[in-house]
Hints:
Strand content: 5-15%
Helix content: 40-55%
CATH superfamily of the domain at 26-135 and 267-298: Upper collar protein gp10 (connector protein)
Structural class: alpha+beta
Low-confidence stretches: 4-12, 308-317
CATH topology of the domain at 26-135 and 267-298: Upper collar protein gp10 (connector protein) fold
Radius of gyration: 28 Å
Amino acid sequence: MARSRKPDLKYSNYRPDRPLSSNSNSVMNQQVLTERMYQRHLTELCINRFKWENMPEEIDGEVLRFLELNTFYNAVTLFYQSKTNDRYYLARAAGTGPINWYDNPTQWTTLGMGELFTSEVLSDDECVPIYCNALRTPDTDIVNLFSMKLANLDRTIELNVKNLRYTKVITVDESQRLTWSNLMRKIEQGDPFVLGTTALDLGQVQALDVGAHPETLPKLLETKSKTWNECMGLLGLNNANQDKKERLVTDEVSANDEQVMASRNIHLKARKTAADKINKMFGLNINVKFDDMVDTTIPCSEAESQLHATPVMKAVS
């Protein structure tokens, strides 16, 4: 029985149109939204990594967007010339023929959505598969895993920023509840001083430290930056370390560049191999190269942007 690999036509777990569950609380909603944001942003970086040159006229920017998006999610996109109108196409496809000695399908079937799409069956000498990498697997695992890691770090940073505003849990007698509520509200509003009556008994106050420390924030931000850089490296994108106070020495820069280039070649070589086969089969002059203009700046959360403006309340000994 011939082996075949049918790609997943669903475009991953990222669904911006999917509403958040009404049963979940606001904290979980924020966590999910943050993770979706990273999934979207990292996916955008992935599908804009490559520049295709000298493509046939019918394969314009919209078609090239489909090429990278489909290859990102399904690991393979098929390039072929239609038997009906001689136009060149890029399509989802599945290997449906027997597998040859080199683990390549000898027949492909194009797949599509909608009533206007007509499926075609092509032999391996009529089409060229464009793979995502040498293992022919999607990059979605990298994006989904690091989206979860970065979202968790964002949530931890936001909690620490908020806890720095109120580092104590105050317990008082029930008769003093309203007094202390008004006192804390005035502090939150930024009043320069708070007036209290002689009935305000400070000796009855007990405070519980929630464990927020200002020195924790720089470490968390550094961890987030390292996690982002690790993700960029796996995707073949530049990830210059800007956290170190001292200048990077030449050996460190070279080592980082070598790792980035090694990951970059994994994805680029698969596409160049496909381009060479297309040129040989159809007499074209297609070329593909890595786009070094992709902006890999790490997204900044609201908590991080307010970090330096956050007042820190310290206990007076």
